[in-house]
Design brief:
The complex is a heterotrimer of chains A (543), B (158) and C (120). Chain A is of the alpha/beta class and 543 residues long. Chain A is built from 22 helices and 16 strands. In chain A, helix 5 runs parallel beside helix 9. Chain B has 2 domains: 56 residues; 82 residues, Glutaredoxin (3-Layer(aba) Sandwich), CATH 3.40.30. In chain B, strand 3 and strand 4 form a beta hairpin. Chain C has a single domain, classed as Glutaredoxin (3-Layer(aba) Sandwich). Helices cover 43% and strands 20% of the residues of chain C. Classes of the chains: A alpha/beta (543), B alpha+beta (158), C alpha+beta (120). At the A-B interface, strand 12, strand 16 and helix 16 of A face helix 2, helix 4 and helix 5 of B.
Amino acid sequence: MHRFHILIAMDSHTIAQGARAVKDALVQDLTLAGLAQEVRVVETGTLGIYGKGVVMVIFPDAVYYAGVKVEDVAEIISEHIMKGRIVERLHYRDIPAQEVRVDEKTPRIGKQVRVVLKNAGSIDPESIEEYIAEDGYEALGRALTEMTPEQVMEEVKKSGLQGRGGAFFPTGVKWGFAAREKSDEKFIICNADEGEPGTFKDRLILEGDPHSIIEGMALAGYAVGAQQGYVYIRGEYRMSIQHMQMAIDQARKNGLLGKKIFGSKFNFDIEIREGAGAYICGEETALIESIEGKRGEPRNKPPFPPSVGLWGKPTIVNNVETLANIAQIILKGASWFRGLGTQNSPGTKVFTLVGNINNPGLIEVPMGITLREIVYDIGHGIPGGKGFLLAQLGGTTGGILTSEHLDLPLAVDSLRAAGAGMGSGALLVVDDRQCVVDLVQNFVEFFVHESCGLCTMCREGNGRLLELLQRLTTGKGVAGDIALMENLASTMMRGAFCGLGQAAPIPILGCLRYFRDEFIQHTQGVCRAGRCKMQASDDTAAA
Amino acid sequence: MPNLNKVDTIVKSYENMRTPLIYILKDVQNEFGHLSEEVLTQVAKTTRIPLSEIYGVATFYSLFTVKSKGKHIIRCCNNAPCHVNGSNEVLDKIKTYLGIEVGETTADGEFTLEYTSCLGVCAVAPVLMVNEEIYGNLTPEKAVAILKDYKMKGSVHA
Amino acid sequence: MKTLSDLRAIKEKARKEMAAREQSAKYRVVVAMGTCGIAAGARAVMSAILDEINKRNIADTIVTQTGCLGYCDQEPLVQVAQADKETITYGKVTPEIARRIVVDHIAGDRIVSDHVFMQT
């Protein structure tokens, strides 16, 4: 167990100013001081501080140092690490970018903050009155009677809300594209085709607080000038479909959907469209194809849906969690929202905590919280006293994080720097009883099953990757297999048609990067975890 | 010989919906059990959508089937969160118990075994779905007990 | 509903009703009935609670449902709330434990302490 983690920024700016030499000096001096076991030095991407020389941050204190030179290293070790005293001379305080802020008025449970989930699990989702009692439809009422569509859009833009489906594109900017288009019809689609393994945040919102989605969609419709919305829910989510349909019926009955809502000139209605079982339909253009009654194969982009979408008309596709934020932003204001999370990633994020974890489930936390806080403070660690092997963030296409990333702030920019992403918010924790190669095979089996078959890269690439992995997990692998997998995976990343084929190699390459030895062992017929059924050679059979 | 007039009734019930093909196929499958060539040809005639396009849709989505299936459809999840919580052991036990592989139907026509994508109840992994009912926190023994109940009663609730 | 004041009237009424309902009933029992809860057996728990309450003619208790609370591994979850007291959340409730909650906690004012997951 390391007492301290020193994260040293390794980006083009800091490297140019000697970050590598500082890191080498740190490692060397720590070893000399006998602290190598207690302090871990981690190279990280940018810490968001530029033009200040070499930058590092020491956890658990979260103290930032800037302008660090090789000759300062000894002082940092003797003062900060050994005596717990901050080296004021180098202390860097101006760090709003990664600071996690929580305002006092927002309800919280321990480290959790509930914005999107404020009603889920506390109101009866089948009762519109209970939603209204919790300030429901107040935002829509105020927007329609006191605000112009431009003001609604401006508020969402100012809030800095980013799409919670995984791409984190600024929601207000996306709305602006559709608002600019002139068309007799425009559409708002709620993407509730939640299928990313380990993700169930949208299900919880749809089941527990369906009116928040209706209100968010109506506000989006008002802002961009759309009169019709569709909620595309995967067919397997029976309860989500029932609760959403009930909510739509109640909203219509109360005049909150339909013609002249709140006595204004705004008309808006919503219908549910059920999916029929296809992971790829979470991709927005594939989803649109599916609503059009076709095979859910992705379209060429551009044009993007805000210009040419459903039935060729301007269309906004927003994720469930994104839409669940909208009414509250309108009600409480953009500056309230910006008071949560980090500068570059405002608001909260809903994570689903799954895999080998004591306390799995669903949590809502401010952006910028660390992996360690989620896994150990909220998730209560790993069952059976097992060790932390890796975490995968964002579903099966998500990046791989290892113990060296435990203190990384989970925000869009910091994750990107570490080669990962927030994705759908699924956090799969894997303990050290598991075999990495077996796990990667499981990922690839998923991609083979879910590839829509449109492009060769994804359809054939994943198939061939699976063959290579099956060789490794049955003891038939050879030394060249690893290089072949890497070559194939990076080619797919560049050549696949849509996000699925492009992202499928991310976890594979991540595991190859951090757990290469384990792959090499498999080519030699050894599975550390003993999960792979290696063809026993004569020697092992005798032993 | 299926009563193809029912296809026409289903198609007509969606005349106010834009591009309703997936909904039509869902209802048709509910009515006839599976999407046979005969039935799909009738859908093509009534909707005036080319049969090739309809067949493309019917074979694209995993909730549609062009082959006849068992009375109960078991959908096992083996995505990563279930996988690291022992879904393989559950699946192996089910295969032995039923004597079939994934994608097959038992000889008595009771059960069809399939994979499902993540059902979003990973905190109670491993999970499986029988028809429209989801069961969680499975062990190999629990899974077999659930299937035995279906065999005896036709259906049970969790 | 045509105006903001219509909405606010409904809000006031709903708030009053929710408050009145909580005052008139001594106990409010909430069963989490999300997909995860049902997959873990919440339906059988709900019927056991209703059955036990009916059998004993308990009048001052209301039973409602809610969605997933986010603690899916503890499902089925049952909350027993009482005005001015801590809310007790029971985890991994079986139909048998559910009946004990009615008999001991609701009829007998004794918390079933060995199955408490959380007090808030």
